[in-house]
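Everyone, carefully examine this protein record:
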Amino acid sequence: MGQRGEPRRVQAHDGELGAAVARAQDGDEAAFAVAYRFVQPGLLGYLRGLVGDDAEDVAADAWLEIARDLRRFRGDGAGFRGWTATIARHRALDHLRRLKVRPRSTATEQDVLDLPGPHSTHEQALETLSTRTALDLVAGLPRDQAEAVLLRVVVGLDGPSAARVLGKRPGAVRTATYRGLRRLARQLGANGVTDDGPGTLGEST
């Protein structure tokens, strides 16, 4: 269970991922490769929303740190995805600072709001978020919404885990996710998905 009694989001392969991580911590290189295959697609999608075409380079830096500090990790498969997302986010923000690119900041979300979105909104966004074009569309959301959507939908974290990655309260992440998915569904319904090329998080309005 997560904070405030929210159940942890369970991915289909979290058990296998956790077992692979445990073996990798004992020095099993093949198990580390298994963990990498489970985590990398979602991690790369998240980083594309943050740094655009530099995502693979940033992911490579993140995996170097993950491999270096692997023995210090404590947790299960879901926890490992959260831990790797935190490392990847730090590397992405370092990268943006080096480029002197600042993701656009937005007004603080009202933490007290709890606005569960209708299933149709969520499902419509889920159906398209696996594509590169859709990830580019996510990059046009306000920063807090984009990161929340990427962590919840692409990386697959539950609300409390995403909140820990972002350093926010779960209520704020829940609200940002809802607003981002609602905006995406509205854009997809009105305009369809367009391919305007990759961007970095917060550059579009």
Summary: Residues 29-51 form the longest helix (23 residues).
